Each structure stands twice: as C-alpha cells, then as structure tokens.
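1st attempt posting a full record on here, be nice pls
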Amino acid sequence: MGMEEGNMMERSLTWRKSRLVRYAMTVVMLTVLLTVFGVRDGVKAAELPYDTIEDATGISIAEFETIVKNEIKIQNEGESTFVSEVDERHTKIKNYDLQNAYIEYDLANLIITKYKEKSNFQSLMDEDYSVKIPCEMEDGTPASLVLIPENGTLVFAELGLYNETPSDTITYDSLEKLISETTLEGQIEQIRFTYANMYHMQLVYIVTSETEYIMPRMSEAYDGIQSNHFYQVDEFFQQMNQVFDESAIEPNLNGAVPYRKHFSDLIPIGIALIGFLGAVVCIILLVRKKHMDKKVNMA
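the predicted structure (as tokens):
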C-alpha cells in the first residue's frame, strides 16, 4: 500500500507540473501574439504622440483652463458678440471642449515650391502656432476658439464659425478612428496639426518608423485630393502640383492659389469660341446675301 500510495502522489505531482507548464506556455504564446498583432490595433488617442499643450506652450493644464475661462468670459461679456460672416447672426460661446484642444502650426506660403526645393515637410512649418479649442455657440453652431501665444501666455485671436456640422471640427477620437481604418506603414512616432493658409487646408502630418503621411482636411474637394485620406508626403505634393499653380501668383501673396490650367479645361472655351465665330460668319453671310438680293431686285 505504501508503494502504491507513493506512486499516486508522484503521478499527481507530475500532472500538476505538466498543467503549470501548459498554462505558462499558453500565457507566453498569448503575450507574443498580442505583441506582434496588437501593435497597430486598438491604439488609444491618449497613446498617440501628439504635441501637448503643456509641451508646446510651457503652460500647465491648470493654467490653460484658467486662461480659456477668462478669455471666453471677456469675449462673451464684451461690447460685441461674435458675428457669423454668412448670415450675420449674433451669438455667444455656449460650451467648449478642452479635452480636444490641440496645437496647430502655421505653414509657410508656397508650400509646393518650397517642398520641391527641400523635400522636407518639417521645414515648411513656421515657429508660429495657435491653440484650437472645439466649441459650440448659443445657437448650436459648431466653432473653433483660437488662442495665440503672447508675452508668455495665450490670448484670444479669433473664432471660426463652421455653419455646417460638428464633423467640420477634428477631435482626437475622430482622428484615432480614421487611423484605425487605414493601414499605415510602421509605428506612429509623431502627429502634428498644421494649416496651409493659401490653400485654406488643414494638413495632419504623421511620422511613422517607416515613412511620413499627410492627411488633408478641407471643405472643398479637388481632383486627386481627398479630404481625410492618408497620402505619403511625396504623393501628396505631386497631386497638389497637378491641381494648383503657384507660379501664377506673386511671391508672398496671402490669397488663394489659382488652379493649374490643363488642355481639357480649354476645350469648352474653344467650343464656345468656335460657336461664336460661326455665328458671326453666318450673320455676315446673311447680311451680304440680303445686300446682293437687294441689288438684283433694283436691277
């Protein structure tokens, strides 16, 4: 009985060891799988490498909140309220979203020409930046409160009223969703919001361990340039150069860049011109015929 009991205990111990080994191997395999396949999936907005308000401005979050509250109070209780350029509605700020406030860097003028010269998107960024805060007006209009740095603090600069839908404003969650729906090469290392004033276009700049991307955001669609679509930087500027002609404007002009003229654009003009010339010729021939008939009748 003693030997049999000892064998049973030994078999029980061996089974337990085997079970522990299998459990440990399962844990290791799951960890490896999650590490390999979970790199690109389930990225939280907080984990994405944005430039934070504190890093860019040197102003703490608590100070930032106080500044925003004071600036909104001053603007809302001032002599004038914000006026929409579209329909001249007088309206005040109702609420704002500090969780989705972000830094936006200005881009130099003539970005297509300057990118051709340097092939470096980061060289297009000015030192100037603004802080944009999504907000809502009393009448429900989505807007963006813009603050700029001045004397070591942030002050009110302007209020952009979108007059359309809240989808016009970008949030960390909406960008996270767009990124999760797209396959980007490599791991994301940097995300910056930039603005091309001459194109009225926001460009989200994303650096990965493999390459660089541009995601344009604009209200107007252009041939070959799609809003909220990710382009590799070289591809994006090639498309921009197909659509816009920076050589057609004066240097340092702050206006909009004209479209590039293509042969297909001239076809309707040519057809209209031919039609006009044809009509003129017909009128001349009719006048001459009338004149000749008159001569014949007089004879």
